Amino acid sequence: MAAHQQETRRTIRSFVRRAGRLTTGQAQALQELWPVFGIDFSDELIDLDSVFGRAAPRVLEIGFGNGETLVEQAAANPSTDFIGIEVHEPGVGHCLLRAHAAGISNLRLSRHDAIDVLRHQIPDASLRRINLYFPDPWPKKRHHKRRILQHDFLQMLSRKIEPGGTFHIATDWQDYAEQIDELIGSDDSFRLSERRTHGGGDPLDRSTTRFERRGLQQGHKIWDWRLTRI
Asked: Which residue in the list 81, 113, 116, 136 is annotated as catalytic?
């Protein structure tokens, strides 16, 4: 079966839509600010130059949580465009509020399954960088097949990143780190540029995240990787 067919028939989800209560402000943001910052899902490719009104390097983050670090990145790098994907609506609402307060125009958000968004909406070779920080570890062994980092997923990312672009990963789960090392070692579309193991004080070209702080409080170590698209 071809890789495209495998992707098309994918039925196992790498996430669960967690229940969460929207605050009044978050609900209002989803209604009023989504038309400004939101990208609705469709099965057609997006013209990113039209979405942002310019041609610029683009960074995509998968699972941005509450979006605080994503907004910080966008505010600190006005010459780069940022796309964030998150399915948890309170987090999306929080990010919209932060983006509006920061007065930035170089950020767009999607609240749909990242694999579907990447497959159907993001043009090939259109991204300078993709970030995947602290994805759901699905710690029980019988659930490891739900982990987003699998061979087919990595192959798809390689098509979306321009040659010489980068894929950044971070996790605080040791057995997930071991799986990621094995995956990188068997892949021929990326080159491992740097790998770090640390206690939270040496993140690799990124800000410290809320999920990272939670893992550190539980006594976990942190693993960081930077892969370069060949």
From this structure: 136
